[in-house]
Amino acid sequence: MPLVRIDLRRGKSPAYRKAICDGIYRALRETFSVPEDDRFILVNEHDADNFSYAPSYLGISRTNDLVIIQVTVSDTRTVARKKALFARVASLLAQNPGMREEDVFINLVEVKKENWSFGNGIAQYVEAN
Amino acid sequence: MPLVRIDLRRGKSPAYRKAICDGIYRALRETFSVPEDDRFILVNEHDADNFSYAPSYLGISRTNDLVIIQVTVSDTRTVARKKALFARVASLLAQNPGMREEDVFINLVEVKKENWSFGNGIAQYVEAN
Amino acid sequence: MPLVRIDLRRGKSPAYRKAICDGIYRALRETFSVPEDDRFILVNEHDADNFSYAPSYLGISRTNDLVIIQVTVSDTRTVARKKALFARVASLLAQNPGMREEDVFINLVEVKKENWSFGNGIAQYVEAN
Prior knowledge:
Chain A is an alpha/beta fold. Chain A is built from 2 helices and 6 strands.
């Protein structure tokens, strides 16, 4: 059910971008108990002048490799699980594709369980079927 | 007031994409009582490696024709109306442009009525004017 | 902490788009007390057939210069501050790059303070550090 939007500067290889998607999906599986195969990820690549970021906000040194990850999820996770997600995403993306953890920006948008339809016009999470 | 974001694979004709926009707008009018002419729809077309989806999550068979629709709306609708929206969008997109209902993914993000400004720097839904 | 998404028609100069980003950032600083250097702004440029808008909804006359601004922020602002933000953004964008105030569309998506990680896998707004 998470819907993931990834925004980054243009120029990374398909393998690099796939590693980011894979890492986020794996972190969601491990920390948010997202079901297997529940993977919907959109990537937007930007030219430099359409990607504006703070290079040192909160004392964190960011580079042009910054990746902004916005995840829409159901509003069922505790603060502890959110912290676990953030840590796991940063750790996995540091492993592969080898990102700096400073360059991993994550934001969660929470919605009600009834706000999803995964196909066929049905609100699967609140239907009997 | 709904702000609609549509994400899909690149390659569909303008007429096909317009039919999707028209169907969503009509479904919002019919099921969410959205006012006439209240239509703000953004479409993002993706290359294959920037559009990752689950081909069978929840037993629904999805294809490359999958369309991911994220609608930001005021938080005033019941579960019943949300179900009606989902069903109507899928039904209308099946009619035109002839999509498979399995390929219609919808997510709602709800916000307060005061969170909109439709121009002129005014929060129209909470202003006296 | 605000994450800003700007959607507009393709064709505006880098300077024009930068002026929009600068104006929004300044308005957020002034009306939402956003910290200095807290600036994360994504711009998406669309072809005409991927940017559908209501030309006169609520009696406001919009043109192809319409800019749709969606700001994800923590849920800590009053209605009065939101109204101030809307007014300030419209006013600043009218000054530079010289937009019509009718063409400034703004939507706020509010999230909990714990929903942000600005790097290093930490939820900075709820951590002791």
